[in-house]
Amino acid sequence: MTSLPFTQVDAFADAPFSGNPAAVMPLDAWLDDATLQAIAAENNLSETAFTVATPDDPDADHALRWFTPTVEVKLCGHATLASGHVLMQGDAIRFRTRHAGVLTVTRDGEGYALSLPAWTMAPRPLPDLAAGLGGHPVESHWRDGGYSLFLFPDAAAVGALTPDFAALKALGDVMLIATAPGDDSDIVSRVFVPGGGVDEDPVTGSAHCLLTPFWAERLGKTQISAFQASARGGRLGCTLAGDRVILTGACRTVIEGRFLL
């Protein structure tokens, strides 16, 4: 029997039982992909982060991969922040990823700052996704790789959404971001990825790679306060810095233990 370290962290959490839970599991060496996927399914969180130390890599401290209960994903912000929370020993830690380059987490007061790529989108009609999402979006935007964004007139419209998850799942592994101007924050959003095994994600760092440049242009500023209006809810500070997005937030360790394999 193999015993693996396991830490569950609420990322982007400004209060107990808020933010997005992620499992962080440091490994001595990579397990096969089927085992990694099975562990993530057993954890049944929106993402499980697996790391392996990379002492021979001059540009990164650890390699990092993320799995939902059903698929491996190309980028996950909250589980990267959680990994930094668990593994950081100094003031910064660098993670080499397979699809998003090297991601750095640094200390930021009592929380952390995470540097992610800034991703732009282009307007595109998305009638099938819009129908599954529901409501009455006033704009739709797309980025290749399976990222969609729908603009709504206000926060109430975003909060009232009741998506048809079965219909959306049938359309494949697509992230749907619903967003609007916020009430007590600059922007508000909700994020749905039913095709990736997560009907509604509590707080989604990767979505803010898209939301930050989208709203920075519209609001005419590079620093944005964001609230993700899931049932748990989470708050993020977002800064557009050239071709990077800097997200800030707090983390809380809620479970520590061993995973027996």
Radius of gyration: 18 Å
Spans with pLDDT under 50 lasting ≥5 residues? none
Largest sheet: 18 strands, mixed
Written as H for each helix and E for each strand, in order along the chain, the element string is: EEHEEEHEEEEHEEHHEEEHEEEE
Care to count the β-strands?
18
Short description:
By secondary structure, this protein is of the alpha+beta class. It has six helices and 18 strands. The radius of gyration is 18 Å and the shape is globular.
Characterise this structure.
This protein is an alpha+beta fold. It has 2 domains: 3-118 and 248-260, Diaminopimelate Epimerase, Chain A, domain 1, CATH 3.10.310.10; 122-231, Diaminopimelate Epimerase, Chain A, domain 1. 20% of the residues lie in helices and 43% in strands. The chain has an 18-stranded mixed β-sheet that branches.
